[in-house]
């Protein structure tokens, strides 16, 4: 009587050592047994490497993501002054990235220690829901920035707060639904041929996620173009009042702000676009190396998010200094907000 094969410890393939091979196609248990005989018959130098180094990289990234964003969540949670809609959205982004980091760590732990399909589905569902909430939060922050410029006089009204809470409920509700799909049966554990480049997500499941990302990116791009137009128009009007368009300090800082917006959007695209496009055109038969090479940079977006959206914010900088050393440097306390802070 043969023993039941262990659960898959890898994101990508039933064979935990398939990452090292050029092919990414399915491998049956007989061929695995023929390739790797029992451990007693192998010398130490011949033993197969049981831990995928790419999974170690993802686990390390998850640890960094969790620690970095936990600090942002803690600062916003403990500071009553950080309750404006903008800070709620930044907190939502940090919480989503924190859960994504924990999901990566838990997936590594459960995959290599528990080796349970149920645990794998739960951790993959957590990762999908968290990264979805992270991307949706980025869209919500973009919408908030656009509204704060377009409706500058009424931005701090109660209507704005209600709209922010509505966005938070919708983005987390939709993210939860996307994360529950693998857990509720929309997975490829029973039929390997339906797997996508990320096991146990099906090809249809990851296609929905990828297309949704492309639509969100297009909407963010359009909003950032509108933000740039508004900022440049305001800078032009102010500069004309000073009669020195090119030499106006406000005009210079506005150009810096537009450059900052381009960097923000470019970083987001550089992190997520390779994996999004690859997951649309590839399937489980592709070499695992390609999937890891596009998936790892996508996780780095959650490392960069706190730097772009939280640590650059003057109010959060003050709160961080108070938490770390109990004081606020004069250079931070006296810095005025400029258009480059958009």
Describe the protein:
The protein is mainly α and 342 residues long. Helices cover 69% and strands 0% of the residues. The protein has ten helices and no strands. α3 runs parallel beside α5 and α7 runs antiparallel to α8. The protein starts with 28 loop residues before the first helix and ends in a 9-residue tail after the last helix. 36% of the residues are buried. The N terminus is likely disordered.
Radius of gyration: 24 Å
> Main β-sheet: number of strands, strand sense, barrel status?
none
**Oligomerization category of the chains in this entry:** single chain
Distance between the termini: 66 Å
| Helix vs. strand class | mainly alpha
**Unreliable parts:** 1-8, 20-49
Mean pLDDT: 79
- List how many beta strands DSSP finds: 0
Tally of individual helices: 10
Helix content: 55-70%
Strand content: under 5%
Short summary of the structure?
With 342 residues, the chain is an all-alpha fold.
Name a few traits of the molecule.
single chain, 342 residues, mainly alpha, 10 helices, 0% strand, disordered N terminus
How are the SSEs ordered, and which strands pair?
Layout: H1 29-35, H2 53-78, H3 85-114, H4 117-150, H5 158-183, H6 203-242, H7 249-281, H8 288-310, H9 314-325, H10 330-333
Helix pairs in contact: 2-3, 2-8, 3-4, 3-5, 3-8, 4-5, 4-6, 6-7, 7-8
